[in-house]
Structure formats: C-alpha cells, structure tokens
Amino acid sequence: MNRLDNAFAHHEGEVDLLLKSAQQFISALKGWKRACVEGSVGDRQKHSERAVAISTLIEPSVREAASGWSFNARDYLASDDWHNELIEAASRHPSTPNILSEGSELVCPPVVIRSEPGRASLRLGKARWTKLRPRKVIDELLRIRQRSEKQNVQEFLDSLWTATQYLNRGKQLETNTAYAKLRDIYDLFCLTPGWKKENSETAFAQYLYALHRSEVRVTRSGKKYEFEFPAGHPKTRDVFDVVAEDGRSVRYYIIHFR
C-alpha cells in the first residue's frame, strides 16, 4: 500500500533537520547584530563568518529536501490506498466511530468522505479538506461529529416536510397527515441546480440516518415525523440504504408527518 503518512513522516524529519540549522543561522545573525550594537569588531567578524558558513550548508540541504518529495498525491487519491490508510488509522483511534467503505466513498456517520485527486484534497461532506495525513482527517471527523448537529438536522427535517407538502398538493389525505417516498423527495431536491452534484444518494441516506439518530423529532411547525421501513419488495431505487455504526443495515423508504 502506498502510504501518505509514511511519506510525510519522512519529509517532516528532513524539515526538522533544516529547522535546527535555521535556528543556528538565526543565532549567528543575532550575535552579528549584537556585535553591531555593541561595536565589537571581533564578535562581528566571528558571527558574520559563522552565518556565512551555515547559510552555505543550508541552501543545498533545502534544495535537496524540496526536490526529494516524490509522493504522487493524485495517484494516491485515485486508488484505494487512501481508503485503506484512513480506515486503518481510524481503527487505532479509540474515539473514532467506524469508517465504512461504500464504493468510491467512505462513510463516517453522518459524514460522507470523497477523494478529489485533481485537487489533491478530500471532500468531507460538502467541505473541501486539504490536510491529508490520516490523523488530521480523523481529528476533523471527530470535530464534525462532536459539533452540535441539531441546527443542521432541524433544517433538513423542515426541508423534508416542505417537500412532502409539495408532493401531496391536491391529494385528499387524512386531516393533518402527509407522507411521501423518500425517493420522490430526493428527486425533487435534485431539481435544484447543482444539488445532486453536491449530494449523492449515499450522502442523502446519511442525512436521513443523522436525523434518525438525533433527538430532533418535530418540525418547527409542530409536525412529528416517522420513518416507514420497506416491507415486501419495493423497487431497489426507492430504498436508501445506510450502514449504521454497529454495522447493521438501515433502509429508509417513506416518511410520515402527523
């Protein structure tokens, strides 16, 4: 497996050595300046010669370290290596929930993780993420997870209710009740320019799961929701599957509002 973490760890070590040399160079410059302030001819000579000697050593070392970086981030993100390395790193972190592989995407409930090889970045949900070392990705996933999600979940539930109302316009339903297939809601959302590009079916399923596991149960207008799970043999495309943190499959089909 092509490991990004190993490549950066090695490169970090090279930069650490450069920093030590740089600190020595700065020390020589400070001594040189102090000699100027004090008017010490001997110290000026000593520290200036030391600064020249160190700078002569630093420049080729900097060039060598800079040109020695050969890791191909595009190839790495276009392969399964980033999947495998992130999952492996997460398994060693006690606070990280399971990271699950779903095709070309990873899912760390409720976040969908995609790679963007051409931009040398990841996409965590809708946010572009350029810090690719696994521990940094995991730290950000934990931050997202620990951040209060109630506001986003509430907005999502309200949008589901608005879509359900639209899909039920003109229908004769029981008083104060309405329901809709989640597939129909997703297709309706996709009519908004650019929405489908930013929100795959996998991402939509994760939004449903985040709502389901949250404490939000009622829309701002007072409508209580309930999911109906598929029974019998509904069309595969009408069911949104998600893998929960415990590994079981959860299948969302219809949403009811009362």
Summary tags:
single chain; 258 residues; alpha+beta; 3 domains; 5-stranded antiparallel sheet; 3-stranded antiparallel sheet; 10 strands
How would you portray this structure in words?
The protein has 258 residues and is an alpha+beta fold. It folds into 3 domains: 4-67; 73-146, no CATH class; 150-257. It contains 9 helices and 10 strands. The chain has helices at residues 4-38, 41-67, 73-78, 81-91, 134-146, 150-167, 182-189, 195-198, 201-213; strands at residues 100-102, 105-108, 111-116, 121-124, 127-129, 178-181, 225-228, 240-243, 249-252, 254-257. It has a 5-stranded antiparallel sheet, with helices on both faces. α6 (150-167) crosses α7.
Biggest beta sheet summary:
5 strands, antiparallel
Q: Write down the domain tally.
A: 3
Q: Give the structural class.
A: alpha+beta
Rounded to the nearest angstrom, the distance between the terminal CA atoms is: 52 Å
**Rg, Cα atoms, Å:** 28 Å
Low-confidence stretches: none
Percent of residues in helices: 40-55%
What value does the average pLDDT take?
Answer: 90
H/E series, N to C? HHHHEEEEEHHEHHHEEEE
Question: What is the number of strand segments?
Answer: 10
Report strand %.
Answer: 15-25%
Please give the count of helices: 9
Please state the overall shape, judged from the principal axes of the Cα atoms.
Answer: elongated
Widest sheet: strand ordering = 1-2-3-4-5
